[in-house]
Amino acid sequence: MLNVSVPLFIFLSGLLTKVDNDDWMAFFKKRIVRVLIPYIIWTVIYTIQMGKLKSLPVNLRNGTYAGQMYYIFVYVQLVLLTPVLGKLAKSKFRHLVWLISPIYQVCRHYIPLLTGCAISGHLVAITTNICLEFIIYYYMGLMLGNHIMGKNFSVTKLAMLFALALLMQMGEAYGLLLLGNDNPGNPGITNMLTSVIFLLLVYALLERGSFKNCNRFLVMVGDYSFGLFLCHVLFKRLLQLTSFYDSLPFVVNSALVFAISLAFCLVVDKVFGARVSRWLGIR
C-alpha cells in the first residue's frame, strides 16, 4: 500500500499542470529551480551525514546518497517532457503513451528475471533514475487536470477494484519471490495497476469535494510534504544509531520518524522564515 506514495506526488504534479503554455522556458525555470536548489543542499547534508565528502560530486550526479532522491531526477524529466506529453494528449496518438510504463516494467524487471541476464553497471543507474516507469501517473494527471479524459468515476467501484488489485499485487509479489526477486513488493504490473486505481479514487474523492473540510493537521502535513520527503531519511538514519529504534514495530518507528521530521519542518519554517524554507524545500 505504501507504493502509491510516489505515484501520488507525481499524479498531483500533473493534475496541477496546464498543457497550454505560452512560455515554457519560464515554466521550466520555475519548476526545476524549485527542486534543484533543495536537491543540492540536501545532497550536501546527506553526504556530511555519511562522512564521505569526497563522494559529493558522485552524489550530486547520481542522487544515490539517499534512497528517496531519485524522485528529483524523475520529476525534472517529467517537467521537461510536459510540452510533448501535452501535445500527445491532444493528438490521435494519445493512447500510445499509456503503453510506455508497462513496456518499461516488462523490459526493466520481468525480462532480466526470466532470462537471468541482470542489468549492471551504469545501466542500473540510468534505468533507476529514468522517468519511464512513472510517465503513466503524470500523464493521467495531465489528462484529468486539463479535462482531456473523462472524469465520471464511481468511488465504490474504484474502492472494490483497489482491494482486488492489492490482492493481485500480493500474489505477484509471492510469485516474484519464488523466482528469486529480492525486492518483490516494489516492481510489477500489478503494483502499477494498484497505483492507477488508487489515483483515480483520490481524483474521484476530490471531484466530490470530500477533502474540502479536511482536517487542519492533514493540511499542514500537505504543506510540508516536500520537506518531509527530503528530511525523513536523515532522521531515520540518526534514529537507527540508537539502541531502541530497530526493536520498535514498523508502525511505531515510522510514526516516530514522521513526528520528528514534521517538528523539524515546523521549527525551520517558523524560525528562519519563508525564504530559507523555500531554499531547503521545506514547503
Radius of gyration: 20 Å
N-to-C series of helices and strands: HHHHHHHHHHHH
Instruction: Tell the overall outline.
Output: globular
Number of strands: 0
Secondary-structure content class: mainly alpha
Mean pLDDT: 89
Strand % is under 5%
Q: Report how far the terminal alpha carbons are from each other.
A: 25 Å
Question: What composes the largest sheet?
Answer: none
Number of helices: 12
| Percent of residues in helices | 55-70%
Which residues sit in consecutive blocks of at least 5 with pLDDT less than 50? none
Outline the structure in words:
There is one protein chain. The protein is mostly helical. 70% of the residues lie in helices and 0% in strands. It starts with a helix and ends with a helix.
Layout of strands and helices, then pairs:
Elements: H1 5-15, H2 24-50, H3 56-62, H4 70-89, H5 100-115, H6 122-129, H7 135-145, H8 155-178, H9 189-207, H10 216-223, H11 225-239, H12 250-280
Helix pairs in contact: 1-7, 2-4, 4-7, 8-9, 11-12
Summarize the structure.
The protein has 283 residues and is mainly α. Helix content is 70%, strand content 0%.
List keywords for this structure.
283 residues, mainly alpha, 12 helices, 70% helix
